[in-house]
Amino acid sequence: MSRSSLRRLVVGLLASASFALPGCIKAHDDATVTSDGSGHYGETITIDLSAMKGIADAIGAAMGGKPDDAGMDGDKPAPEEKKDDPLEDMKKEWKDIEGLEVTKATSKEENGKVLIEVEAKFKTLEAYAKATGIEMNAELKKNDDGSWTLRFFSDESKEGGDKDAPGMGDPAGDMGAAMLPMFEGFMKELEMARKLKVPGEIVETNGTKGDDGTVSWKVTWEDIKKGHSLPAQTVTFKGDGLALKPFTVRREHKGGGMGPK
Question: Where are the domains of the chain?
Answer without folding.
Answer: 3-260
